[in-house]
């Protein structure tokens, strides 16, 4: 073993939400969130660092929804801070790039078009996998979490109360 190599460990952090009870179609670039209020918390990926202010790399991600015919591409915007420090739109509002978010911005991951299993009659979900390009992050001094906002990249019509779950594969520095 290389005595100069930084020790790491692998974890998966997950968060999910239920979107509002409506079927208003998304436009490409709209936020997919649990609320119609922009001031609500973002998705939180807990234990992204072993200690406050810790760091790591995102090496993969999964997105699953309970709508089995959800043929959308998604984008997950990632930050080191939650709302209100990070400005993010409400559900079904256009995601905007805000310079005020720059100190907290990690980057984003693109999920390809979601798919369902071959047995479409019994399937109850659609899913997509994203390969991260070893996206590095450092949590804020008093935090071990990172945060995210999911957006619809293609403009789909959601189900009322549709549920989403996102998992991040992380290599945490020790």
Question: Which structural traits does this protein have?
Answer:
174 residues, 5-stranded antiparallel β-sheet, globular
Structure characterization notes:
It contains no helices and nine strands. The protein is globular. The mean pLDDT is 91. It has 174 residues and is mainly beta. The protein starts with 7 loop residues before the first strand and ends with a strand. The strands form two sheets. Strands 2, 3, 5, 6 and 8 form a five-stranded antiparallel beta sheet that branches. A four-stranded antiparallel beta sheet has the order 1-9-4-7, with no helix packed on it.
First-to-last CA distance: 16 Å
The coarse overall form would be globular
Structural category is mainly beta
Strand and helix order? EEEEEEEEE
Strand content: 35-45%
The protein's oligomeric status is single chain
| Poorly predicted runs | none
For the largest beta-sheet, the strand count, sense and barrel status come to: 5 strands, antiparallel
Total strand count, please? Answer: 9
Taking all residues together, what is the mean pLDDT?
Answer: 91
Radius of gyration equals 16 Å
How many separate helices? Answer: 0
The portion of residues assigned to helices is under 10%
